[in-house]
Design goal:
Layout (H helix, E strand, L loop, with lengths): L1 E3 L1 H8 L15 H13 L2 E7 L5 E8 L2 E8 L5 E2 L11 E6 L6 E5 L23 E5 L5 E6 L1 E5 L5 E6 L2 E6 L5 E5 L3 E7 L5 E7 L4 E7 L4 E4 L6 E7 L5 E7 L14 E7 L4 E6 L18 E4 L2 E6 L6 E6 L7 E2 L7 E6 L5 E6 L8 E6 L6 E2 L6 E8 L2 E7 L6 E5 L5 E3 L15 E6 L5 E7 L9 E7 L15 H15 L3 E6 L8 H4 L12 H12 L4 E11 L1 H12 L6 E5 L15 H13 L13 E6 L8 H13 L3 E6 L9 H18 L6
Parallel strand pairs: 36-37, 36-38, 38-39, 39-40, 40-41
Antiparallel strand pairs: 1-34, 2-3, 3-4, 4-5, 6-7, 7-8, 8-9, 10-11, 11-12, 12-13, 14-15, 15-16, 16-17, 18-19, 19-20, 20-21, 22-23, 23-24, 24-25, 26-27, 27-28, 28-29, 30-31, 31-32, 32-33, 34-35, 35-37
Helix pairs in contact: 2-3, 2-9
GO molecular function, one term: hydrolase activity
Pfam families: PD40, Peptidase_S9
InterPro entries: 6-blade_b-propeller_TolB-like (IPR011042), AB_hydrolase_fold (IPR029058), Pept_S9_AS (IPR002471), Peptidase_S9_cat (IPR001375), WD40 (IPR011659)
Length: about 700
């Protein structure tokens, strides 16, 4: 086992703490409610975007559970462009700025993960909710221009396009939109041609996806080399003469990947109407396509493409000639992942966020495309996981041990200007999470963050293992740039303030540690190999002299809920209690077309043995179950099933549901309620008895 303390020392030396780090008596339940309420109420920024021709940024801020959109010039004071006042779960997303930065478009309502589904209504409004595209004009006047998502400004800023399912809408800025096209399927991306003459789109039809063009003046549609795969990430060349895109043919199972190459990079010539394959990766590592969330293909000029590839085993940004006459060259460092990347407006500099040098810390970098060495954008210990370019400026989303995600504008000579500087109340207690490294029984190296309560104690402490969801996620020793895990980090800090030792474990199949770690074999329904890492986390906790081995619990949501349930089903002798938020409990999937009946039968047997339901007879530890019944990610029936199975076995459980809530709870008050249910539950099951 190894503990990295340099990160903590640097934070302490940097004087980043505004909240209490002094030793204090553990919080009681009222103190815990005060702390978690304060942390959940802190401003949290997401959806950072920049104007293409102006140094102006916009982002969504959630504060006290209320979402609003703010905008600021690179050195100016942020100004609220919307004025919502209620924690009613109304989502704001899909933020877009006109090229000159003077007009804003955004989506109100709906769910960005399921944009063509019904709009959620967690506040139980009697009239329901709608997902609408709105604009805020330079005058400040706001308009609702239609129902849909994907707002995209034309190059001259005069027209806004958006979609709803398979329908395309166009609206002159300041006027109501009109439907101009409707096709079966879902339009999942939109991009204007550089001259504004056409709109490039991705049409998802389930079994396949196509790249198409809508010609604005002639009101006609064409498809670019339609085929049988999943085509995605279409991008115009700067001169508008070509379109690059990715074509995938995904493997039926992870056991059928050694021989194949499952994606290719294409360029379609719009002048000659011909498609050619630029490059196909060789079989092996990198033969399956992956892209950081929110990133795409980029043209550095009319002859070269930038794209993500894991050929070395790590997510890197690479470049290749669009002619298909060369081989790729990777630009970002090896042995490190990239989580976001953008090009400068002149296309000469690549900006990206990476964990180079320390896989548990993310920072923003710049790299000129002339081959010069990369440079850090900001020289401090904050975590930077996302970025945006506005005119000649770069903005990042940063977070730290005590500060939630917030926008920062990068200045010259490593200077930076926070547009928002979130501060916790002075009576909130933080500990500095320690990065720990341990090994599973099969030798896999596992990283995690250890939250150890301040102060000495002569009594053994209770402990908790926290397991993230995804499973393709990574928790960090700081507030997270994703709201779900920012909330979880806040709760882990609160649990530490109550006297629990908490270990947040980054189990195999998560991101940040390379392709082999993320795509390791036999995870989930293929064998639940990641549970070995969760069990190893508990084993590590049991070796600590300050922990009572009889009072180790576990909590997590989604895939973390699945692993929580699996831990209790397989090892109630190790895990004394657990909190399972919207987890999966029966992993059996429908038959896979293309596999024989025998292959499907064998797969289902492994899926069953990988399920918490399969070991229900061994489950005796108490559990808390929480689920929103409008969950599109994990069926609500997964939790009603588990309640029935636990009832049959006589296992004690506490059950709660949120009518009309989604997978990621949309209202802060629901997160607070759920966390306090968990806090009370663990207080009763892990701290009510002494060693």
């Amino acid at each position: 086992m190894m503990i990295r303390s340099a990160f903590a020392a640097a934070l302490l030396a940097g004087g980043l703490y505004s909240a209490s780090l002094a030793s204090a008596a553990p919080l009681d339940e009222a103190g815990a409610r005060h702390q978690i309420t304060a942390l959940l109420s802190m401003p949290f920024a997401t959806n950072l975007v920049g104007a293409s021709n102006a140094n102006r940024f916009a982002w969504v801020e959630k504060r006290n559970g209320v979402r609003n959109i703010l905008a600021a010039d690179a050195t100016g004071t942020p100004k609220a462009l919307t004025h919502f006042t209620q924690d009613d779960g109304t989502n704001l997303w899909g933020v877009a700025l006109s090229p000159n930065g003077k007009t804003l478009a955004y989506v109100e309502g709906g769910d960005p993960e399921f944009p063509d589904a019904s709009s959620p209504n967690p506040n139980l409004s009697e009239t329901g909710t709608h997902q609408s595209v709105n604009v805020v004009l330079e005058s400040g006047r706001q308009m609702r221009i239609g129902e849909g998502w994907n707002p995209t400004f034309s190059p001259d800023g005069a027209t806004l396009a958006f979609s709803r399912k398979g329908s395309l809408f166009l609206a002159p800025v300041g006027k109501v939109a009109k439907e101009v096209m409707s096709v079966p399927g879902s339009l999942t991306s939109l991009q204007w041609a550089p001259d504004g003459s056409a709109l490039l789109f991705t049409l998802d039809r389930g079994s396949h996806a196509l790249i198409g063009l809508w010609h604005v003046k002639t009101a006609t549609m064409t498809f670019l080399a339609p085929a049988l795969g999943q085509d995605s990430l279409p991008t115009f060349s700067p001169d508008g003469r070509s379109v690059a895109f990715v074509r995938e043919h995904r493997p039926l199972t992870d056991k059928k990947t050694e021989k194949g190459s499952f994606w290719s990079l294409h360029v379609y010539d719009l002048v000659s109407n011909t498609d050619h394959v630029v490059w196909t990766p060789p079989a092996g590592t990198g033969a399956r396509f992956a892209v950081p969330e929110g990133s795409s293909l980029l043209w550095s000029d009319n002859a070269h493409l930038l794209f993500p590839w894991e050929g070395s085993g790590w997510m890197r940004v690479c470049t290749v000639a669009a002619s298909g006459t060369g081989i790729p060259t990777c630009l970002t460092p090896d042995k490190a992942e990239v989580s976001a990347y953008r090009l400068s407006q002149d296309r000469k500099t690549l900006f990206y966020t990476s964990n180079v040098g320390n896989v548990d810390a993310w920072h923003a970098w710049r790299q000129a495309l002339d081959g010069s060495s990369p440079q850090r954008l900001i020289r401090n210990e904050d975590m930077e996981t996302d970025l945006a370019v506005a005119g000649g400026k770069v903005g990042v989303i940063a977070a730290s041990v005590t500060q939630t995600a917030h926008p920062v504008v990068v200045g010259p000579e490593d200077a930076s200007t926070p547009l928002i500087s979130p501060q916790a109340p002075s009576d909130v207690h933080f500990v500095t999470p320690q990065v720990v490294v341990f090994h599973s029984a099969d030798g896999v190296e596992v990283h995690g963050q250890l939250f150890v309560p301040e102060g000495d104690t002569k009594t053994l402490r209770p402990a908790l293992v926290f397991v993230h969801g995804g499973p393709h996620r990574q928790t960090l020793p700081a507030f997270n740039g994703m709201d779900y895990y920012s909330n979880a980090y806040a709760m882990n800090q609160t649990l530490a303030a109550q006297g629990y030792v908490v270990l947040s474990v980054n189990y195999r199949s998560g991101t940040g540690y390379g392709e082999a770690f993320r795509n390791t074999s036999e995870t989930g329904g293929r064998g639940a190999s990641e549970y070995r890492d969760v069990f190893a986390a508990a084993t590590y906790l049991k070796t600590r002299a300050d922990i009572d081995p009889a009072r180790i619990g576990i909590w997590g949501g989604s895939w973390g809920g699945y692993l929580t349930a699996l831990a209790l089903a397989r090892n109630s002798d190790v895990f004394a209690a657990g909190a399972d938020f919207h987890g999966v409990h029966d992993m059996i999937d429908p038959d896979t077309y293309g596999l024989s009946p025998e292959e499907n039968r064998k797969a289902h047997e492994v899926e069953w043995q990988s399920s918490p339901a399969a070991d229900i007879a061994h489950w005796h530890a108490p559990v808390l179950l929480v689920h929103g019944d409008d969950d599109y990610n994990v069926e609500f029936e997964q939790s009603t099933l588990l309640a029935k199975l636990l009832s049959e076995q006589g296992v004690p459980y506490e059950e709660h549901s949120f009518p009309n809530e989604r997978h990621t709870f949309l209202r802060m008050q629901d997160w607070l309620t759920a966390y306090m249910w968990m806090d009370t539950f663990f207080g009763r099951t892990l701290t009510s008895h002494k060693p």
